[in-house]
C-alpha cells in the first residue's frame, strides 16, 4: 500500500494508506484492443468467468520480454503474496522450461485424493531418468523440478466426474519437440507406476499427460492464478536433481519449501522464464529425432531442429534476388550446366522429372501435391531449391517476391522427412500423371547411360579398336540400374535377395529373376535400337562419305557386340553381380511395413490418423508396404450390403451373445487394423470346444491376409535371451497386425517380461533371416491373442503384468442339437458346417465395418465388466501371495511384521500348500509394500500381524467371536 500525507485544519498531519494500483495499472496498459487492426502477439490471456459472485473479465495482453520481469514482480507482490483472485495464463515459449500437466479423472464416488507422496516421487524419478537419456548430464548438472497441486480433488457433479491433477515445471530450457518426445517416453512408465489409480480418462493414460501443454498449443496457468470457480495450484514439492557420473544415474534431493521464497523466485515458476540451464542432446536422442522427425506442416524451425537437420546450401541465398523470368532461366541454366556429370546426373534427372509434372501439381488448389514435390527435392539434395522455384514459377499466379517465402519454407523441410519422399517418388508421380512425357524423359536419361557405356556420343569419340568390348560389366549394370532403379531393390548381396515393386507393394523376387530376364530382352532391345540408328545414319549420308560411313558402321558393330554379350548367360550373371551393389539398400527391410497407420489393400491404402478418422488413397513406393490384406477395400454401403451386414452381425452376436462382450469384441477386432498398442493388452480367448474361437480366427485370417500371423508358442514362453538370433519366423511378425497363439498345453508358463515387451508398443524386438548379417529391430504392431481351452500359468502378480491381460470368455456352444434352457450352457446355437464358405463374400464388408469403427475409436478399446471380471478371477486363481496374506495376516493396530518374520511364515505356508520351488521372496516384499506401505520407513510393516494358530481354533469354538475376529481378516476386497 502507498502512503499519503493528509493535513487537517483541526489537527496534525496524518498518514493514510492508499490502495496499491501498480499491478492493475500495468496490466490495463498492456491490454490488446479487439479493434486493433494490427495487434501485437499475445503473451498472456485472462480467462473470463465467475468466482462465486465475483465476475472476472477476460482479455489478451502483450508484455514485452524487457517488461516481463517487472510484470512478474508486480504480479507476485499483488496476487501471490495476498492470495488474490486472478485468471491469467502465459503463452509458452518456443524454447523454455518443461511444463507437464497431469490431468486425472475419476468417477463421482471418489471424494478425496488417491495419489500420494510415493506417486509424486515416482513421477519425479521417471522424468529425471528419461531426461538423462535425452540430454547430456554431468557432474555439474543441477536443476529443480517444481510440483504444484490443489488442496483437494474437484468434484464436478454436473459433469459426473471428479478431477485431480498435478502441475510440473522442470527448470531446463528445451524446445517444443523435446517436450513432446519426453511426454511420449513417460506415458507408458507412468501407466506402470500409477496403474492402480482408477482413472476414467477417455483415452486412458494417453489422455492423462496433456498433449496440448507438451506441444505448446495451450497456455500455462500462471502460479497463483486459477480457472473460474476453481481452487489454485500451490507449490507442494521441490526436487533438486543432480547427476552422478560414477553411477551414471540421476539423484533426487527434496528442498524444504520454507527455504524457497515464491514471491522472490516467481520467475522460476513462470512458463516464460529464459534463465533455466540448457543441455546438449545425447547421441541416442539425436538418432531418435533424426529417424522420427517432426511434422513439416509447421513453418517454424527452431535452433535445435537446425542443429540436427543441417542448414541450407549457401548458394541458394543468391536466388532471393531473382525478380524476373529471364533471371530465373539464367540461374537455372547455370545450375544445370554446373552439374558434374555423371556424378550429379541424379540431380539432372530430378529436374527433368519434376518439370514434366502437370498443372495439378503447381496450379491453383494443388498445395498438397506441390509441397510434397518440395519435400522430395529437399530430400534428394539441398542444391535443388532452384528447381523447386522453377517448378513453382510455372503457376499462373506465381510472384517472384515470394521466393524468400519459399526459401524460408525450404529451410523447415527436414532432410529425412516426410515419409521417405525421394526422386523415386517424383518419378512415380510423373509416370502416373504424365505418362507420355515420362516415357520421353526416361528414354533420354537411359540414352545418356547407354552412350556412357560405349564411350562414344560424337564421331570424335569413336575408337579404332574393332575388338574392344566397349564397356565393363559395371557400366552395363549401371544402365540396368537407370532403367529399373524405381522398381527393384537388392537387400542381400551375399544371398541374392531382391524385391520388386508390384502395384504399390514391394514383393520378393526370386534372385532377381525378373530383372535378369530384362537384360536379354528389354535392355538388349535398347542397344539394338541404338545400333540400328547408327546403321541407318551410315546409309543415309548425303553426299556420300566413305570414311564417315565406315566409322559409323564400326560404332554400330561395337554396340552389336554389346547386344551379343547381353544374350549370354555368363555375361548376364556378371552384370547381375555388379548390379547387386547398385540396387543394394541396407535399410530397406527395416523400412518395410514400418508405418503403423498404413493398411494395404489390393486397390489402395488406408491411412489412419492418430487424431481419428483417416483416408483411403493410392499407394506409393515410399510407403514401403510389403504386406496386404489381399482384398479390395470397399466402403460400407448400408443399403447395398444390408443382407451381408445382417449375416455378419448375426455371426458376431452368436459368438458373443452377451451385449458388453459383443461391443468389446467389435472394438477389439477393429483395433487390430491400427498398428499402435494404445491399450497395451494381451487378449486370451478362452473356451472349451466348438465355441467359435477357431472359426473367428479363420475369418480374421481371410480378412487380414498378410497382416495375420500365427505365433510360435516359445515366443511368450522362452526367455528373452533366445529372442533376436537366427529367427526368420519372428521376422514374419514385422508389420503384422494380429498375432495368434493357438492352443498352448496345460501348464505352459508365460514369460511375463516377453509378454510386456510384445504388448508395450514401444519396446523393439529383434529378428534375423538367414541372409541377414545383422538382426532387424522393430516395434511390434500386432495385437497379441492366445486361443486356448486352458489358462496359461502366470507366476508374476505385478500390476504391469495384470493390467495387460484381458480374458475373453467364448461362452457359446455350436452343436447339431442345441438345447434351450440349459443352465450350464445357456448359449447354444445350431452349428453351420459350411460357414467358412461365406467368408469370401463377407470379408470386404466386414473389413469396411471394422475400418469405420477404427476411424471413430482410433484403436482404443473400452474395457467392459465381463472381461475385467474374468481377468480378475484368473489373476486371483494364481495369486499365491494374496492367498498367503488372507490365510496368515490379520489387521492389528498395535502389530508389526518384519521381513525375517514374513520370510519364515511364507516359506512354511508355501511349502505346505503348494510345494516345489519357492518363489522369490522379493515378490512377497513388493506385494506387502503396495498393500501396507513402504517397509523402509519403519523397518517393518505396521498395523498387521501374523495370525496365531490358536486364533483359528478359537474362531471355530464360538460363532459370535468368530464374526468379531473376521473384522480383522485381510479380505480379497481389502486388497
UniProtKB/TrEMBL annotation:
UniProt name for this protein: SF3 helicase domain-containing protein
A single GO molecular function, which one? Answer: hydrolase activity, acting on acid anhydrides
Where in the numbering of this chain does the SF3 helicase domain appear? 660-823
Keywords of the record:
ATP-binding, Hydrolase, Nucleotide-binding
What is the protein's species of origin?
A: viral metagenome
Q: Which Pfam families match?
A: AEP_C962R, D5_N, DUF5906, PriCT_2
- The segments labelled Disordered in the record are 952-975
Residues making up the signal peptide according to the UniProt record:
none
Amino acid at each position: 500500500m502507498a502512503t499519503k500525507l493528509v493535513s487537517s485544519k483541526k489537527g496534525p498531519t496524518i498518514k493514510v494508506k492508499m490502495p496499491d494500483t501498480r499491478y492493475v495499472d500495468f496490466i490495463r496498459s498492456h491490454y490488446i484492443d479487439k479493434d486493433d487492426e494490427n495487434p501485437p502477439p499475445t503473451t498472456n490471456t485472462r480467462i473470463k468467468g465467475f468466482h462465486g459472485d465475483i465476475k472476472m473479465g477476460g482479455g489478451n495482453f502483450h508484455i514485452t520480454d524487457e517488461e516481463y520481469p517487472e510484470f512478474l514482480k508486480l504480479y507476485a507482490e499483488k496476487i501471490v503474496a495476498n492470495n488474490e483472485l486472478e485468471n491469467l495464463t502465459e503463452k509458452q515459449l518456443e524454447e523454455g522450461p518443461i511444463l507437464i500437466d497431469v490431468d486425472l479423472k475419476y468417477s463421482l464416488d471418489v471424494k478425496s485424493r488417491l495419489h500420494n507422496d510415493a506417486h509424486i516421487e515416482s513421477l519425479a524419478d521417471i522424468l529425471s531418468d528419461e531426461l538423462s537419456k535425452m540430454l547430456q548430464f554431468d557432474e555439474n548438472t543441477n536443476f529443480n523440478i517444481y510440483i504444484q497441486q490443489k488442496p483437494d480433488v474437484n468434484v464436478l457433479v454436473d459433469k459426473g466426474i471428479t478431477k485431480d491433477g498435478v502441475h510440473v515445471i522442470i527448470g531446463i530450457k528445451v524446445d517444443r519437440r523435446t517436450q513432446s518426445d519426453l511426454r511420449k517416453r513417460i506415458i507408458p512408465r507412468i501407466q506402470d507406476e500409477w496403474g492402480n489409480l482408477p482413472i476414467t480418462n477417455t483415452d486412458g493414460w494417453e489422455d492423462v499427460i496433456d498433449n496440448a501443454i507438451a506441444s505448446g498449443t495451450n497456455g500455462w496457468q500462471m502460479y497463483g492464478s486459477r480457472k473460474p470457480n476453481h481452487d489454485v495450484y500451490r507449490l507442494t514439492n521441490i526436487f533438486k536433481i543432480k547427476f552422478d557420473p560414477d553411477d551414471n544415474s540421476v539423484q533426487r534431493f527434496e528442498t524444504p519449501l520454507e527455504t524457497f521464497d515464491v514471491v522472490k523466485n516467481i520467475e522460476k515458476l513462470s512458463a516464460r522464464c529464459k534463465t533455466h540451464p540448457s543441455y546438449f542432446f545425447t547421441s541416442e536422442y539425436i538418432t531418435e529425432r533424426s529417424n522420427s522427425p517432426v511434422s513439416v506442416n509447421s513453418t517454424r524451425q527452431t535452433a535445435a531442429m537446425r542443429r540436427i537437420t543441417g542448414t541450407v546450401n549457401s548458394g541458394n541465398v543468391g536466388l532471393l534476388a531473382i525478380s524476373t523470368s529471364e533471371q530465373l532461366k539464367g540461374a537455372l541454366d547455370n545450375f544445370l550446366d554446373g552439374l558434374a556429370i555423371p556424378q550429379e546426373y541424379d540431380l539432372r534427372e530430378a529436374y527433368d522429372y519434376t518439370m514434366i509434372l502437370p498443372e495439378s501439381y503447381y496450379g491453383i488448389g494443388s498445395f498438397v501435391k506441390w509441397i510434397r514435390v518440395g519435400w522430395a527435392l529437399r530430400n534428394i539434395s539441398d542444391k535443388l531449391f532452384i528447381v523447386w522455384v522453377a517448378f513453382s514459377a510455372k503457376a499462373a499466379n506465381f510472384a517472384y517476391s515470394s521466393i524468400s517465402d519459399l526459401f524460408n519454407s525450404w529451410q523447415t523441410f527436414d532432410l529425412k522427412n516426410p515419409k521417405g519422399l525421394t526422386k523415386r517418388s517424383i518419378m512415380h508421380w510423373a509416370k502416373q500423371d504424365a505418362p507420355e512425357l515420362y516415357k520421353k524423359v526416361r528414354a533420354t536419361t537411359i540414352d545418356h547411360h547407354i552412350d556412357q557405356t560405349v564411350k562414344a556420343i560424337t564421331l570424335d569419340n569413336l575408337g579404332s579398336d574393332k575388338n574392344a568390348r566397349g564397356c565393363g560389366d559395371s557400366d552395363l549394370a549401371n544402365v540396368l540400374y537407370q532403367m529399373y532403379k524405381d522398381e527393384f531393390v537388392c537387400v542381400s548381396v551375399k544371398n541374392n535377395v531382391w524385391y520388386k515393386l508390384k502395384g504399390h507393394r514391394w514383393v520378393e523376387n526370386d534372385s532377381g529373376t525378373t530383372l535378369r530376364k530384362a537384360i536379354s530382352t528389354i535392355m538388349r532391345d535398347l542397344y539394338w535400337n541404338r545400333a540400328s540408328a547408327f546403321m541407318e545414319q551410315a546409309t543415309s549420308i548425303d553426299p556420300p562419305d566413305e570414311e564417315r560411313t565406315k566409322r559409323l558402321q564400326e560404332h554400330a558393330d561395337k554396340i552389336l557386340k554389346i547386344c551379343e554379350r547381353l544374350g549370354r548367360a555368363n555375361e548376364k550373371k556378371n552384370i547381375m553381380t555388379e548390379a547387386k551393389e547398385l540396387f543394394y539398400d541396407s535399410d530397406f527391410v527395416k523400412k518395410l511395413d514400418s508405418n503403423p497407420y498404413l493398411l494395404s489393400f489390393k486397390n489402395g491404402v488406408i491411412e489412419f490418423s492418430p487424431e481419428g478418422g483417416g483416408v483411403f488413397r493410392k499407394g506409393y513406393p515410399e510407403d514401403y508396404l510389403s504386406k496386404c490384406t489381399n482384398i479390395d477395400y470397399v466402403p460400407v454401403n448400408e443399403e447395398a450390403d444390408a443382407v451381408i451386414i445382417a449375416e455378419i452381425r448375426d455371426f458376431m452376436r452368436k459368438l458373443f451373445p452377451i451385449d458388453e462382450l459383443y461391443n468389446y469384441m467389435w472394438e477389439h477386432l477393429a483395433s487390430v487394423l491400427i498398428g499402435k498398442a494404445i491399450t497395451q493388452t494381451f487378449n486370451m480367448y478362452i473356451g472349451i470346444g466348438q465355441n467359435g474361437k477357431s472359426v473367428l480366427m479363420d475369418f480374421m485370417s481371410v480378412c487380414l491376409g498378410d497382416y495375420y500371423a500365427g505365433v510360435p508358442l516359445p515366443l511368450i514362453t522362452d526367455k528373452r535371451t533366445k529372442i533376436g538370433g537366427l529367427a526368420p519366423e519372428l521376422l514374419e511378425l514385422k508389420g503384422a497386425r494380429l498375432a495368434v497363439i493357438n492352443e498352448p498345453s496345460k501348464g505352459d508358463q508365460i514369460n511375463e517380461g516377453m509378454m510386456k515387451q510384445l504388448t508395450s508398443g514401444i519396446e523393439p524386438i529383434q529378428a534375423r533371416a538367414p541372409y541377414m548379417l545383422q538382426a532387424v529391430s522393430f516395434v511390434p504392431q500386432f495385437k497379441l491373442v492366445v486361443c486356448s481351452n486352458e489358462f496359461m500359468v502366470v507366476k508374476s502378480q505385478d500390476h504391469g503384468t495384470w493390467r495387460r491381460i484381458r480374458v475373453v470368455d467364448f461362452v457359446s456352444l455350436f452343436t447339431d442339437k442345441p438345447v434351450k434352457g440349459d443352465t450350464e450352457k445357456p448359449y447354444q446355437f445350431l452349428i453351420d458346417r459350411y460357414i467358412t464358405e461365406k467368408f469370401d463374400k463377407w470379408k470386404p464388408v466386414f473389413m469396411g465395418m471394422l475400418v469405420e469403427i477404427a476411424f471413430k475409436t482410433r484403436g482404443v478399446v473400452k474395457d467392459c465388466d465381463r472381461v475385467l471380471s474374468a481377468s480378475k478371477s484368473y489373476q486371483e486363481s494364481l495369486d499365491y501371495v494374496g492367498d498367503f496374506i488372507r490365510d496368515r495376516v490379520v489387521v492389528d493396530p498395535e502389530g508389526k511384521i518384519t521381513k525375517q518374520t514374513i520370510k519364515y511364515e511364507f516359506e512354511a505356508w508355501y511349502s505346505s500348500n503348494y510345494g516345489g520351488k519357492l518363489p522369490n521372496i522379493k515378490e512377497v516384499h513388493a506385494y506387502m509394500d503396495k498393500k501396507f506401505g513402504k517397509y523402509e520407513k519403519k523397518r517393518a510393516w505396521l498395523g498387521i500381524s501374523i495370525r496365531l494358530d490358536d486364533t483359528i481354533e478359537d474362531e471355530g469354538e464360538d460363532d459370535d467371536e468368530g464374526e468379531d475376529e473376521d473384522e480383522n481378516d485381510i479380505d480379497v476386497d481389502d486388497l
